[in-house]
Amino acid sequence: MAVLNTPAGSAHARILGVGSYRPSRVIPNSDLVEAIESSDEWIRTRSGITERRWANDEETVAMMSVAAARTAIERAGLVPSDIDGVLVATVSHMKQTPAIATQIADELGTDKPAAFDISAACAGFCYGIGLASDMVRGGSARHVLVIGVERLSDITDINDRGSAFIFADGAGAVVVGPSETPGIGPVAWGSSGDQADLITMTDDWLSWADSDIELTPRLTMQGNKVFRWAGFAMAEVAHEALELAGIKPEDLDIFVPHQANMRITDALAKSMKLPEHVKIARDIATMGNTSAASVPLALDRMLDEGQAKSGDLALFIAFGAGLVYAAQVVVVP
Ligand code: UT7
Q1: Could you tell me the domains of the chain?
Q2: Are 265 and 298 spatial neighbours (Cβ–Cβ below 8 Å)?
Q3: What is the percentage of the chain residues whose pLDDT exceeds 70?
């Protein structure tokens, strides 16, 4: 009987380069508070957010992705034709098909890579890192571009008290490629579909079109329930990622959680008993919650500001609508 060939991948995978794009419109809390009867102080103390970035008309999902990806590819010491996989994590590409990944791959000048979108909300980037690592080690791709990108301002209801001040726009990208040493630990991931209603859209497009509701479907969130779930359940997932990687909290150099709420970040750091020397990403203060883009944006800022350096051990963790979650330990490029 004929025997199938199976691909031989790299022994290990690692992140080779990071890039990000921060859109140009700075929106301070004061611009939002009137519509939701809130205050700058309430938003800062409850979420840690002082301002966020919203995209202008030219800063499309594709444009922001291409900008972040170009930097990541260049920093990886590669050219676009080296990329043979493009994974785009997003919930705010507003066309159901085709995937935005193929357009981004084309605009970058890549050479017919496998390209598809990932719908895993705020966990999408960490899902993508898990997939890309397996692709490189499994031999189905050599250099995989993983992009997290959102234009949540398009689907945010500025009159919704529970979410208007949270969501924001931006893009982050990394290239995952072959490595002689372990650079991406096993992913701890999962879902909790029984809580699908906690973060969802106000409507689906067909029902909305049949209704007389003027406002197009928007994000809606039962914030406090998500807050309580994230603070407890995600600490266990973080521990699982550390255990799978054979790493102790004191071995970490940086902690890059999804930028959902500064209080969730603090609760996780406390429950993991992270020692003082572990630097914690706090990009949310000026960027808000950019869902799939938040982890690579926060990592890139830590590198830019010298809080992280090449070779550091980082813990990523992200969670969101689904509910879905994913975490892994990685070596900083
Ligand atoms: O990215 C995906 C994952 N997402 C998250 O992880 C988000 C998780 N959730 C959160 O970040 C928080 O739940 C929020 C920041 C959204 C809200 O903070 P909270 O501490 O959970 O507030 P709450 O909803 O429990 O509301 C507390 C109080 C209520 O008043 P009473 O009942 O105590 O009198 C609300 O009516 O604050 C009131 N409130 C507001 N006040 C001023 C709710 N929204 C606002 C507002 N401004 N925007």
Answers
A1: 12-179 (3.40.47.10), 188-331 (3.40.47.10)
A2: no
A3: 100
